[in-house]
Amino acid sequence: MIKVEKSVPLKEKIHQFFKDQGKGKFGDVMVLGGGISGIQASLDLANAGFKVYLVEKSPSLGGKMAQLDKTFPTNDCST
Amino acid sequence: MVEADRHTNIEIFTYTEVESVEGQPGDFRITLTKKPRYIIEDKCTGCTTCVENCPVLIPDPYNQGLCTSKAVHIYFSLAVPLITYIDEECLYLKEKKCKICEAVCGNQAIDFTQKPERVEIKVGAVVLAPGFEIFNPGLKNDYGYGRLPNVITSLDFERLLSSTGPFEGEIRRPSDGRHPKRIAWVQCVGSRRVTPGDNSYCSAVCCTYTQKQVILAKEHDAELEATIFHNDIRSYGKDFEPYFKRAENLPGVRFIRSYVSLGREIPETNNVTLRYATPDQGVKEEEFDLVVLSVGLNPPADALKLAEKFGLQLEPHGFCRVEPTNPVATNQPGIFVSGAFQGPIDIPESVFGASGASSQCGELLNYRRGKLVKEKKYPEEKDVLGQEPRIGVFVCHCGANIGRVINVPEVVEYVKRLPNVVHAQEQLFSCTTNAAKEIIDMVQEKELNRVIIAACSPRTLEPLFQDTLKEAGLNQYLLEMTNIREHCSWVHAKEKENATEKAKDLIRMSVARTTVLEPLREIELPVNKTALVLGGGIAGMTCALSIARQGHEVHLVEKDSELGGVARRIHYTLDGMDVQSYLSDLRSKVYEHPLIHVHTNSEILEATGYVGNFVTRVKSHRGTAGIKHGATVLAIGSREYTPKEYLYGETDKVLTQLELEERLATQDEGLTGSQTFVMIQCVGCRNEERNYCSRVCCSQAVKNALKIKELNPEADVYILYRDMRTYGFREDYYREASERDVKFIRYEPDRAPRVELVSQGGKEFVRVAVTEEIVGQEFGIDADYLVLSSAVLPAKDAEAVSQLFKVTLGPDGFFKEAHVKLRPVEFSTEGVYLCGTAHFPKHIQEVINQANGAASRVLTLLSHDTVTSSGAICVVDEDKCVACAACMTACVYGAIEFRTVGERKAAMVNPAICKGDGLCNAVCPTGAIQLKHFTDEELLSQIDAAGQEEIEEEMEKAVAAM
Amino acid sequence: MCSGRVDLQFILRALMNNMDGVFIGGCRLGECNYTTQGNYYALGLVNICRKLFQKIGLNPERLEIRFMSSAEGILFVKVVKDFIHKIRELGPLGESEGLSQDLLNLKLQALAKLVPYIRLVERERLRVPEKSEAAYREFFAREDVDRLIDELIVEKLNLSEIMLLLGHGPLSTAELSERLGEKPSEVLHHLSTLSRQGLVRFDLEQKKFAAI
Question: Which CATH architecture has domain B873-931?
């Protein structure tokens, strides 16, 4: 379980942020799940200036959509 | 997938799970466990030599176990990363025997000593997108699944259809590999049932994916007979209704509305019989070669564990509990959810939900945006203008994909003799990091100024090789890719010699084009950091607020005198949200936000400009203003259809659902005291004129019926419907309404209800006659109120707005997005986005989700200082231009304008708007306008080279004869 | 690059390079990648081009256009196989249609010279008002459209062929008629048009026509 602490003022946040940087693997957002939704979230975040860790439990990205032959209603390829 | 893989701001961990989480928003510490692949990721090239030599067969997980794979294998042909992993079934892992893979790997990439590895990461926010699990009909042996070989799930069938499937795209049934001729689909397997082990909700996607499977199966085999046993057909999404009709109208396709039960398996053939009932023929038993169970969506398998680790609450079905007013927010601040963990949803909702979650992260972490990202640095570009072409050709084996069919060394020898080629070599995998380095080294060593990669389709890897060229100091437009895999080795696998000759032809053609390729400049356009949102309903306000919260100025333009849109007439939702208080809260947040400028009573006079640099003239009572903005969001909403049918407007006894809701909300006594209500669904849509489903009305009817029952439990409510489309969790409310004795009567469109106004004993009521389809009997109901579930129509000004902003409308008159599945909140016109019901009718929660999604896409544009436009665009040679305007009529983007050159006019292309389709090039009578990178000269020289071989051969023959 | 970028001169150039057939693949109609619906341009071009093939004595089936999505691999394979089969049946270009190599080259060159003009004609007179497969089929089946092509393009084509031949030196009506495989009366008719336009003159001494 994680604890929710009281909101921290912005100034402190920024201070903390710079203090933490450089320690270990430091990113902005973790996206859990490498299916279509996880990939889209990662791309949006990465393209909007955030460093993303994308974590997928299977050996490849793709999720269920990669198993689909085509998608309705345009019958476009899904992979 | 490849885009995510190549993105410098994304680090991917596959085969990895979350172990623990601690911390708070802005500062989460997460421990990950990387499972051992027994493969050194950096060393594996994906050549699959180990796979070929592995002796252990396992059921292929990607192909649903319908065929086998090896214990060491690549997950699927387009896997990211494209490397192998070793399954636990491996002989060495189980019995310490074998290790053949280690011996055959040329790159020493196998490492059996790997152990699970812990990685700690620190992040400010989390997006959970764990997806869904498919319902497993094997648990209860539904329809004999698991016991009968020819009963399979829809996902199994999906694999059968696929060219990368177990039979390479041939539909063969499991028992004997025969092509099935009679296939039955059984809908709602595991969904819409309250029996233990089943799901009470509707899985929301199965109706339409079944239609897709039917259409595709018929494409595979036109003779095939398809029978679909269904309950309601829920074609509620955009373009779904015509799609259903398309499937339904195919020859040999039957949609039968009936529950089915398993008959028996016929021992000789393994065929399966199903029992069903039709109104005219009673109970029947019919034999099928293959039965496909359209299984629904379950919560992800590890939902409980995830909930525990992240401290999340789940909703009763086991999906993530989300806020009705913000479907990506969980009970834990800083932890967001997207995709099917929100509930059973289709791909577009998953995609804009993901963008919505991203936007919420952006709001939370705006203070640190851009601090951690890296920009790639490239060496200075060499000037090759005026130099003799020096071409380097790299011919890829693609492991065995190309090399097994095409004689690569022979091709390389041939290529070396071609004009302007100064270097040619083979590579095992041109796409590996090592190979890229080799290319860069060769560019330097041999002073190459043009590069050809003869490998796969440019579709996926062209950006990678362009990048390699940039790293080598060459302009990326000096790259040409020759596709000798999809276009050659894959399709001519059985004709090795011909394939080798074709590869030579293809490369010779590429050499000809490459010789005349020019370096091209990409233009950096500045981005104005302001957004303009048109439409002040829930969609527009939500979107504006999210953009503003991420630090950008927003102009919110509304034609009405106040904000709120159609939602002003909606008071409650099925899940109990108080819409009016939400709306007034949202409205004050919008007004209070310092970065949002609200323009009410305003209309758009003119919209000009292009991505990053729009100028829109807005007129209000304060006068006219030109607003400069970088992004545009169109959220102009929709309106309710004013019925022409069923006596609407002729008596106050006939209302629309919205009118009913307004009166229920005020607890109008005339209404609450009434006894009988009849609702008619699909008024004004699902017909010839409007061939779409308005998506929200079934739930709206159920909602209002429940409200009536709440206010007056004794009231009689009848809902006359065609298909109840209470998709997703809304199904539970449909059931509740049934339990509360709301009566649902199905009618066929050709036997629509008939209504008349009747006066009896000084009281006026509406007499409704309807034929009940199951018993075939006509009912008469005297209703105090007749309520019409009338269609949702596009906004009145949709067409005008589409013309102003140069975007397109779909056949239904709603805005047409760039891609119905993958780009649901943007237009193909760059820098213009959409959300809300202007896109298609949808529920409030979906609107909020989509509005946040649009905000996220806007941020991917506005968070940059510049946008780059492609160099492969059209350019005019003013001397040749005769100002005939042929190009201007061909360009629907409006990228071409006249400008004055000296005494006369000439066409000019705005590089920021041109998309490089080249239509103008093909219609220009003087050849003045040319599509760069695909000029007449480049393409003609390629065509000439195609014909050369024959001439060469003839010459050789002639020489030999002499 | 859109299938609408495919140019008449690309098709002609392929034939001049001894290709026996040309296949154009485009996105499905109504499902445009660029939203410009440029594949209809390609469809229009193919219709016009097939008619011109007919006019110069080539089998119009040597040019084929089919529309499909990138996901329709099976369809693509079938379509390409069918096309190759058809072209094999038709045999080598020109020869199978009874055109000598010289005459074939002449006709293709004459047509290639007219490409800019044909583009103008297409835009002014041969553009189908509605973007649907049925509308295109109907438009190009119309007799008046056929006549229009005869009047506007074929006439010019004949003149262009004669001018190309005269480019190598003066020829008599009989010689022209033989090389073009046309009746002397028709050749004379074209020659008088050309002389009215001031493009050829009759050399009294040689009794031959010469380009000016």
Answer: 2-Layer Sandwich (3.30)
